[in-house]
From TrEMBL:
Keywords: Initiation factor, Protein biosynthesis, Translation regulation. SUPFAM superfamilies: eIF1-like. This is Translation initiation factor 1. GO terms for molecular function: mRNA binding; translation initiation factor activity. Gene3D superfamilies: SUI1-like domain. It comes from Lutibacter oceani. The keyword Electron transport does not apply. GO terms for biological process: formation of translation preinitiation complex; regulation of translation; translation reinitiation.
Amino acid sequence: MGKKKLSSLEDLGGFVFSTNDNFEYENEENTATLPVNKQYLEAHFSNKGRGGKTVTVITGFEGSDADLKALGKMLKQKCGVGGSIKDGEIIIQGNYRDKIMEILKKDGYNIKRVGG
């Protein structure tokens, strides 16, 4: 494997180097979580790219990563299955789309079924 030669600071991929002791990195990401009744979530069913295993994918959550993880944890516990939270999506192992939609509607979320 050859090493890529760096020709400019942009090649470092956005690192910030500072000698200022009071420097604070500005986070451009929107971390304000929308209220439950303003959330518009989508429930997908998928088995592509997962070795044939079926999963339920919840997308559309707008808010902080901590709130997304808390919602994902609650859904996994109520369904009694495993899952993960990646790239702003909640992935629940198995086809629990109807059960998850029921749980989220009771909590006040706007959720719609997408696909099959």
